[in-house]
TrEMBL record:
InterPro entries for this protein: ApolipopD, Calycin, Lipocalin_ApoD, Lipocalin_CS, Lipocln_cytosolic_FA-bd_dom
Cell compartments where the protein resides: Secreted
Name of the featured protein: Apolipoprotein D
Keywords: Disulfide bond, Glycoprotein, Lipid-binding, Pyrrolidone carboxylic acid, Secreted, Signal, Transport
Similarity field: Belongs to the calycin superfamily. Lipocalin family.
Gene3D superfamilies reported in the protein's UniProt record: 2.40.128.20
Ranges of residues in domain Lipocalin/cytosolic fatty-acid binding: 34-177
Residue ranges of the TM segments: none
An example molecular function term from Gene Ontology annotations: lipid binding
């Protein structure tokens, strides 16, 4: 029965996530240190592996702020069919010795999912990776390149694509996020 459940979950994810595969998640290496306080604030989505939970959205931003309990409030905003949409989540660092391996969730009933920071300079860009394994059978990958502004240079794009490639995440799956006709370009 467990194999049927895992297979069913994989088929659901396969139909909604753009980068799925057989076997375990790639051996991505998040940063060895992360200054969460410097990471807080507003980030604009520049590239992503398309996913079901942001389908048809444009002008996507993520705003991170520290909560009283030490967790991080994640406030994602976007526009769908001309209407603003938002979702608030909770993130935390489960192991202080691995501060760039955060866990995040966006509903009370959902489990936490990985949110790994592979690279950031805190002021211009961040590269985020997430992968969910379904036993040893399959996995679903998600990745984002975010910036404090709505655009980044082509040379920086190439550097960040290479960061993903070096971590086993095919940059060819990334799609440029729609940041046209957005009202804000700065944090």
């Amino acid at each position: 029965m467990e194999r049927v459940t895992v297979l069913f979950c994989f088929l659901v994810v396969l139909s909604t996530a753009q980068k799925t595969g057989f076997g375990p998640c790639p051996d991505a290496l998040p940063l060895s240190s992360l200054d969460v306080k410097r990471y807080l604030g507003k980030w604009h989505e520049i590239y992503k592996i398309p996913n079901f939970f942001e389908a048809d959205q444009s002008c996507i931003t993520a705003n991170y702020s520290l909560k009283a309990d030490g967790h991080i409030k994640v406030f994602n905003q976007g526009v769908t069919n001309g209407q603003p949409v938002s979702k608030t989540g909770d993130a935390y660092v489960p192991n202080p010795s691995e501060p760039a391996k955060l866990m995040v969730k966006f509903s009370e009933n959902s489990p936490y999912a990985p949110y790994w920071v592979l690279d950031t300079d805190y002021t211009n860009y961040t590269v985020v990776f997430s992968c969910e394994s379904f036993g040893k059978i399959a996995h679903a990958q998600f990745a984002w390149i975010l910036s404090r502004n709505i655009t980044i240079t082509e040379s920086l794009n190439q550097k960040l694509f290479q960061t993903l490639e070096n971590n086993g995440v095919p940059a060819s799956y990334l799609k440029k996020a729609d940041q046209s006709n957005c009202t804000s370009s700065k944090k």
